[in-house]
Amino acid sequence: MKNNDLHFLADEMLGRLTRWLRILGSDVLYLNASDDELLLISEREKRILLTRDVTLFKKAVRNDIKAHLVKGNNCIERLGDMRKNFCIELQIDTTISRCPTCNSQIKPVEKSEISDRVQVGTLKNYDSFWECSNCGKVYWQGGHWKNIQQFLVKAKKLQRGMCH
Questions:
Q1: What is the tens place of the pLDDT at every residue in 1-35?
Q2: Which domain holds residue 71?
Q3: Residue 93 contacts by C-beta under 8 Å, 6 or more apart in sequence?
Q4: Helices H, strands E: what count in the chain?
């Protein structure tokens, strides 16, 4: 299954993981809502409920709602857990990446179209840009890109072998 075939609903405990899953291409709705609301939305929208709340997870299972109790003490471990349990590729593919802020698709955009929204130095140093189709945020593979790649390598190392 490809990252962009997965549809999740993450509870309020998983904000950072949500951002990473979106960057990796997964559709993740992120809500601060009551347990009952989360269960209802998850069932109605056929989303896999992601939580660290054992009580919420057990409620979902009792109600035949697909859910995953996310394991790990930090985001690297949690990404590794998602890789192991959902075969999520820990590789960024900008053709499927979603906006980490609002979950909408990002699309390539010409420099000229975003030149008024990024700093001159950024325009000078980078050629490839992506824009969120909803909130309009602009992304590029800047200086932070090396840190992103290192983070993903660490998560990959935690969960070697076959996913299930």
A1: 576 688 999 999 999 999 999 999 999 999 999 99
A2: 3-91+144-158
A3: 3, 24, 25
A4: 7, 7
